Amino acid sequence: MENEIKNEEFVLSTRPSDQNEVKSTWKLQSCPMPTITNKNEFILKTLYVSVDPYLSSGIKKSALGGDINPIGSVQVSGLVGRVIESNNSNIPVDTIVIGRMAWRKYILANGTEPRFRILQTSTEKNTIYDQIGLSTAIGVMGMPSQTAYYGILSVANTKPSDVLVISGAAGAVGTIAGQIAKKIRGAQKVIGIAGGEKKCDYLVNELGFDAAINYKEYNTKEKMIERLKELTPEGITQYFDNTGGFVTDAIFDIIQRHGKIIICGQISTYNNSEDDPSKMNIYPNYLAKTIYRGLSILGFVCSDFIHRNEEEFYKDMPQWLEQGKIKFHETFVDGFENLPRAYEMLFTGENIGKIVVRV
Questions:
Q1: pLDDT of 108-164, one tens digit each?
Q2: How many Å apart are CA 121 and CA 58, to the nearest integer?
Q3: Residue 123 contacts by C-beta under 8 Å, 6 or more apart in sequence?
Q4: What digits encode the pLDDT tens for the residues 280-307?
Q5: CB under 8 Å to 289, separation ≥6 — which residues?
Q6: How big, in percent rounded to 5, are the helix, strand and coil portions of the chain?
Q7: Given pLDDT bands bounded at 50, 70 and 90, which one contains residue 56?
Q8: Contact by Cβ (8 Å): 2, 320
Q9: CA 190, CA 176: separation in Å to the nearest integer?
């Protein structure tokens, strides 16, 4: 039959050695349609899929550590799906859910998947997702925004006296982190670092950052230091790092004594291999500078705080969005088949805000 529903999935096919091979990491292949065989199972039709930098930790051995996914395994990430068939009385047809699940068009689930959450039932009206879209469950209402929320409020504990610099500021985490620091915590100054004038203009004119630096123009450690000093004569007290690289190297040279460095991501190194030391971004003088400047270096991941979401994040963020305090931007990539291309865009800097694959 011409209209017969067909299922597809992405499996890990290669381990890329550099940026040029990222898009060929996965192979698209046909797979069986799921069938309900047990109580509490249901079938999802995938609506939106999240691509995130941390996925690199499962693709190959890297500085991030963690278990490496076997070749041939189905990729997993956060996604939003609609229930189209159900044997679960608590999750009927047309329920919208989110969770960490396989990159498949149609998925068999039972509600015990990692980070599983019901977003909306078929009878609910006027939810936050009706206002801002279901795709935001993997963006401003999802993991990237939670990372920014806890990173600024709990890890950095940004205060009105702080001068904060954010690298990767135009990405899914950076855009939200800067706004929370400025609009919610009232930071004295928030400086964003991003690639390109369009992104820098967006940070300042749309999101309310005090200033932004185009790292493509200020493209060396020395140029970055000079520009940061011009914009922050009072001195930098906090750095929220999403990228690593020469920007981070510059910060270590000029951040104030007793400053805080929050390590959220190191995307400039994610496609480097631990098996090839020449490609690793390692700065052995960081520790010495930490001693001299009395710095606090704090690393964290979103899952450290996930148990607090219901009482904190899911109460605050919808209110901030409705009040217009927090703005967001989504970069959509259409088509399930374009998931690898969407992932590649994370490293080429083609997006503003969250990249969402719209199936």
A1: 999 999 999 999 999 898 899 999 999 999 999 999 999 999 999 999 999 999 999
A2: 33
A3: none
A4: 555 557 888 899 899 999 999 999 999 9
A5: 252, 253, 295
A6: 35, 25, 40
A7: confident
A8: no
A9: 12
> Which of 145, 205, 202, 203 minimizes the C-alpha distance to 177?
145
DSSP 36-103: --STT-EEEEEEEEE--GGGHHHHS--TT-SPPPPTTPBPEEEEEEEEEEES-TTS-TT-EEEEEEES
pTM: 0.93
**Which position has the token pair 């209209």?**
3
How far CA 331 is from CA of 36, 149, 190, 283, in Å, comes to: 34, 21, 24, 33
- Give yes or no for a contact between 228 and 191, defined as CB atoms under 8 angstroms apart: yes
Residue 105 structure tokens: 């068009």
Among candidates 42, 49, 135, 172, which has minimal Cα distance to 100?
49
Check if the beta carbon of residue 255 is closer than 8 Å to that of residue 295.
yes
Rounded Cα distance between 341 and 358, Å, is 13
Helices first, then strands: H and E counts in the chain: 10, 15
- Residue 147 in tokens: 């990372």
Neighbours of 277 (CB within 10 A): 9
